[in-house]
Amino acid sequence: MPKIRVSIINVPTELSPLKLRGFLRGQAQDIQALAKHREDITVIRVFVPSRIVAALGVKKLDGIFQKIVDSHANIARAELVETSQSLTPSEMIEESEMQKEVLEKVIEPSHSDSNPPFH
User: Fold this and answer.
1) Global confidence as pTM
2) Which residues contact 28 (CB under 8 A, 6 or more apart)?
3) Domain-embedded: residue 118
């Protein structure tokens, strides 16, 4: 059975906008390497400091994210989350737990219902 995973990328506040693409490429390769099966699905939530978003623009970031999705078989989506600064380790744990709860709520009904929701 395929696994669904949400991975968090926390872009360092001190990273320059020019180095963002290389940083994200490396992170995406590491995340892709975690997939054990071709059917595994990964959604990446990328926490990007506002100053980098302002410097590059959302359209440019969308292009970078799309290239990541197109280049990695198991990465289905990359989501931008604009932040004022990098997340702390405790904030990353909190975000991870919240995403885990969301996934469980989405997956649980499909496994517990014997009847499909639509007829």
Assistant:
1) 0.80
2) 44, 68, 71, 72, 75, 78
3) no
